[in-house]
Amino acid sequence: MVAKGYTRPGVNSRVQGIRPCDVDRSGEVWLYRPESHKTEHHGRERIVYIGPKAQNILRPYLLRDAEAFCFCPKDSTRKQLEKRHEDRITPEKYGNLPGTNRKAVPKLKPGDCYAKDAYPRAVARGIQKANEHRKKEAEKAGAEPVLLESWTPARLRHTAATKVRKAFGLEAAQVTLGHATADITQVCAERDSDLATEVAKKIG
User: Are 22 and 66 within one domain?
Assistant: First the structure.
């Protein structure tokens, strides 16, 4: 059984499921080949082209076991707890000792890989909490709150597609985001690879 918010290895083709072994770093532009993806039943290989800017962000997360997930809930939870302990004001001889104030059987247990909906849910919770804080502060000041609009990470993909299309054309946007059809010929596939590589070089 998988805890809500997490997923089994091998079922996530998005960035949450990236592993060092899935990234070909032999060229100027890295190639990320997901172990599983939504169009594989059409017989098409999915390749994500990673340019220099994205490489700099991803590089530290590749320093782990080849088949381990780069973005791991267990690691994030551990770092959170360590940070809380560092920021603790109460002396350790008073209050709860580290690791003692926890539920014996928690409803959610950090896993090895984030579920596909974990990121958007975290963003939604963040916006909700920020707006609650803004409402309280505005109420104290006797003013109308300025609230954050609803936002989802999917807008990042849409924005990227718009920028790529404007700079390189519709075909470049399609191949960069993996929107090519399943019946494309091998010649077109090679052309797509060259075009997507060129886009990754220029935009990172």
Answer: yes
In sequence order, which residues have a C-beta less than 8 Å from that of residue 177 and are 6 or more positions away? 157, 160, 161, 164
Is 122 found in the same domain as 44?
no
Q: Cα–Cα distances in Å, from 33 out to 25, 47, 199? A: 11, 5, 17
Contact 18, 69 (CB under 8 A): yes
| Same domain flag for 5 and 106 | yes
C-alpha R_g of the chain:
22
Q: What is the mean pLDDT of residues 64-80?
A: 87
Dist CA 181 CA 179 (whole Å): 6
Tens-place pLDDT, residues 40-68:
444 567 788 899 999 999 999 999 999 99
Same-domain status, 129 and 94:
no
**Cβ neighbours of residue 130 closer than 8 Å, sequence gap 6 or more:** 148
Q: Which residue has the higher pLDDT, 75 or 125?
A: 125
Report strand pairing: 30-32 vs 23-24.
antiparallel
